[in-house]
Amino acid sequence: MSQMTQDVDTAVGVHFVVSIDDTNLGAFSSCEGMTCEVVMETREEGGNNAYVWQFPTRLKYGNIKLSRPLGANTAKVAQWVSSMAAGYERKTGVIEAKRADGSTVATWAVIDMVPVRWTGPSFNTDSPKVLTETLEIAHHGFTVKG
């Protein structure tokens, strides 16, 4: 295989394995919302009509949404979400993007994860579909693990 072919990684057939504090929540078929935004504060300076000063203030992270068909690991997610009723504890998590053969494409460490929403399947006998669940997680940032 040439060096150029090895550098191209299209991540076709990827799934996302999620764990929190060494508890494996299983594989998810989609992962959305891994965003990071630098919040800018603007200041206008009297007598300066050429531009407005812009200062970076903090980082803002979007919620991560993970989806998959219902399965055996749904109970682990339900247990984590329902544990919030007794008070919450932020968890450290890992999201791994994996190819179909099990090799890892990328790994992110997610800091201070808290479940904010779980959406279960819609049951409708008129429209047979795969039953899916979606887990939405708030966090205080992520880092790419080497």
UniProtKB/TrEMBL annotation:
InterPro entries recorded: CHP02241, Phage_T4_Gp19
Pfam families tied to this protein: Phage_T4_gp19 (PF06841)
Positions of transmembrane segments: none
Name recorded for this polypeptide: Phage tail protein
Organism: Nocardioides panacisoli
